[in-house]
Design goal:
Radius of gyration: 25 Å
Largest sheet: 7 strands, mixed
Number of strands: 28
CATH class of the largest domain: Alpha Beta
Distance between the termini: 53 Å
Oligomer: single chain
Helix content: 25-40%
Length: about 575
């Protein structure tokens, strides 16, 4: 394939047509590969100027160029940015081909020619069965999405402010769902006023999300953004799914990958974004197979793509509100008017950080109080002083990450040290970083500010010393509270609200739940047959990414047993 760059380069601006990475992004299929694709597609002719797929189109088909050429462009208000030209052997699409979400770009015939057209369902079967083509296509799809993100070529413009908690929330939602967007700061960007006037919105409406230059959402919920982007498919309330996984953190994604790869029909319901709490980690360095480390978001994105490759259906921004467990198949409710049925359920809703009982804490959430430490939050902090509260690995990762940009990082822990709660490699990193100061036996006692956090007071419990500092950024990463309120009395919980399973269940708990089978619950099975709990939401679990992944994968073997009963 001969690549021609006629406008803004795609992704990394230093790429050239000879770049190995660009060659992986836009490879040329061999004749033998194209012949294998013919078995699942059909040929069609196109004429010059014909639109083969449009930005915003859902579930677009996959095209392999046989003759002629197709130009892929990114449409925006003032015109188009050229991305690439596909010539014979080239193919269209990026990761949206597997997800079924809306196309971010426009595909137009540059010349007359012919293509091999394949629908999404057939393509998903292919990438799960043909190892050679799967490797080629998946690599290209993932790199193309990365290119769209790095060059900001998406279908969303976000008008926001660093002083708006809603802006940070929408930024996090888009970023963690790997959705490219353009951010316009209404306080500093000269183009902001023109866009506000054009779409009839004002500063009071911030954040404003503009989808595809047409749909204007004022301070939208994540669910509203997901609807506009096509992340929320219509779910059939009458269909009985073999297994429904609730939560797309490491445990849930592992269950989805192993379940779908072993032939199960899997539906994943995720309230926010793939990755769970781990997805907010700036860098995980002790996960097997990644000696140089990997960010939680990157790990989640790879697992998300892998689950889709094998055929899992994943619904984003769908919050489960109730499990109806008094009959089988189980019914999982998503609000008052939506539900799904399942023969087996995997609870993988994870845990969230504790919120200390501090006055004004909620008022400053998103405008000084944060529960994630990613590039989005780091940009909001700039080169200012920050505080990280917590002594676990997530807190250590956050402190090290923020030390690269912050002026100074204070790490506050209530204990006498870190050795009992944090991995040794992180402790050494903190000790060796001059910009990090550890304060033990210390906790925050007051937060002050106007529209945003401005001052923090902490107390040393051992000495009684109180210190007030002009600090406007605090990262709360303390303890873990389970996301189990939606379960009601369906399954047995421990005193802290985590789900009890398998050998941890007492005889009395099984009697109280009227366990109906002669066998005992399997490992990870709750007091309801066929309902499992894995990862951080499980009582006595080890709060580590590797443990969650292991539990999610092991659980599928037990799901097979339940489905065979």
């Amino acid at each position: 394939m001969v690549l021609r760059r006629r406008s803004v380069p795609f992704g990394v601006t230093t790429m050239t047509p000879e770049s190995p990475r660009l060659a992986e992004m836009f490879p040329t299929l061999a004749d033998a590969q194209i012949e294998r694709l013919r078995a699942i597609g059909h040929e069609r002719a196109f004429h010059a100027g014909e639109i083969l797929f449009e930005q915003g189109e859902a579930s677009t088909n996959f095209f392999v160029v046989l003759e002629g050429s197709i130009e892929v462009v990114h449409p925006y208000a003032a015109g188009e940015h050229a991305i690439t030209i596909h010539e014979p052997g080239g193919f269209t699409g990026e990761i949206n081909m597997l997800a079924g979400t809306r196309s971010l770009v426009r595909g137009r015939a540059r010349t007359a020619g012919r293509v091999l057209e394949i629908d999404r369902a057939a393509l998903r079967v292919l990438v799960s069965t043909d190892a050679d083509l799967s490797e080629e296509l998946m690599r290209a799809f993932i790199l193309r999405r990365a290119g769209l993100i790095s060059s900001g070529q998406g279908d969303v413009v976000l008008l926001g402010s660093r002083h708006s908690a809603g802006t940070l929330r929408v930024q996090e939602f888009l970023t963690r769902n790997s959705h490219p967007y353009t951010m316009i700061d209404v306080e500093h960007d000269p183009a902001a006023q023109g866009l506000l006037d054009q779409f009839g919105v004002g500063i009071a409406d911030v954040p404003v999300v503009i989808c595809r230059g047409k749909h204007v959402l004022k301070n939208p919920s994540n669910e509203a953004v997901a609807d506009c982007l096509g992340y929320t498919p219509v779910l059939d309330a009458t269909k009985v799914h073999e297994v429904v996984v609730i939560g797309a953190g490491p445990a849930g994604l592992a269950a989805a990958v192993y379940g779908a790869s072993e032939g199960l029909e899997v539906l994943v319901l995720e309230a926010n974004a793939p990755g769970g709490q781990a997805g907010s980690s700036s860098k995980i360095e002790n996960y097997l197979g990644f000696p140089t480390g990997i960010s939680g978001q990157a790990l989640a994105a790879r697992a998300y793509a892998q689950a889709q490759k094998f055929g899992s259906d994943i619904a984003i921004a769908r919050t489960v509100t109730r499990l109806v467990c008094d009959r089988r198949p189980y019914r999982i409710e998503l609000g008052p008017s939506s539900s799904v049925l399942a023969r087996a359920v995997v609870i993988a809703t994870g845990a969230r950080y504790h919120k200390p009982a501090l006055e004004a804490l909620e008022r400053f959430e998103g405008v000084g109080i944060y529960y994630s430490a990613t590039a989005v939050e780091a940009r909001a902090c700039g080169a200012e002083d920050v505080i990280v509260v917590g002594g676990g690995n997530s807190a250590g990762q956050a402190a090290v990450f923020l030390s690269h940009t912050a002026r100074k990082v204070y790490v506050l822990v209530r204990g006498t040290g870190l050795s009992d709660t944090m991995s040794r490699y992180l402790i050494r990193r903190i000790e060796d970083t001059p910009g990090i100061q550890l304060l033990t036996e210390t906790e925050i006692v007051a937060l002050e500010g106007g529209d945003a956090l401005e001052r923090v007071t902490w107390l040393n419990r051992r000495t009684g010393e109180r210190v007030t500092c002009s600090i406007g950024h605090v990262f709360m990463m303390t303890g873990a509270s389970p996301n189990t309120a939606w379960l009601g009395s369906c399954v047995a919980l421990d005193a802290k609200g985590f789900v009890k399973v398998g050998p941890d269940l007492t005889r009395q708990e099984l009697v109280d739940a009227q366990w109906p089978l002669t066998r005992s619950p399997y490992l990870f099975e709750t007091t309801r047959p066929g309902v499992f709990a894995v990862g951080d939401v499980r009582s006595t679990s080890i709060k580590r990414v590797a443990s969650a992944v292991g539990e999610g994968s092991i659980c599928i073997q037990l799901v097979h047993k339940v489905l065979a009963e």
